[in-house]
What we know:
- This protein has 162 residues and is an all-alpha fold.
- The protein has one domain (2-150, 157-161).
- Helices cover 85% and strands 0% of the residues.
- It has six helices and no strands.
- It has helices at 2-8, 10-38, 44-85, 93-121, 123-126, 129-155.
- Helix 2 (10-38) runs antiparallel to helix 3, helix 2 (10-38) runs parallel beside helix 4 (93-121) and helix 2 (10-38) runs antiparallel to helix 6 (129-155).
- The radius of gyration is 20 Å and the shape is elongated.
- 30% of the residues are buried.
- The model has no long low-confidence stretch (mean pLDDT 91).
Amino acid sequence: xxEYSRLTKLASLxxxxxxxxxxxxxxxxxxxxxxxxxxxxxxxxxxxxxxLGGAIALGVSxxxxxxxxxxxxxxxxxxxxxxxxxxDLSNSIYAEAKTFAVFxxxxxxGIAPIITALIPLSPFLFMDVTQAIxxxxxxxxxxxxxxxxxxxxxxxxxxxxx
Length: 162
């Protein structure tokens, strides 16, 4: 796995896909939660099931979207490599690494929104709906700030401007 990651530069791609998926999951489900609440639903079951349904749909969509995009890009790069090397690489470690990279990137992009969707939903498990909505907004914004700090550290930028 380590060799596949090195050959395909998978670490930075995984970080990008996780961050994109994390933002999508947290903000989309926060939108679903806020829509349900401000639309008049005080029913925790409706809020939680709507949020979970949105999270699962987003995760599946993210997985398959990444799968198709990565598969096409990796196949293009693979064919270019074969053309430059004047060699069939279909039974090589490069072919295995390509297949692994497509799966791994898709998995990361699919699981990230599901994981981060739990952030805006979690307060509804522990408190009354009117308190939970405000805590949900707060913890979601705090988690996005933490992701921003993480990105600032990676890029070497001032964390307040990332």
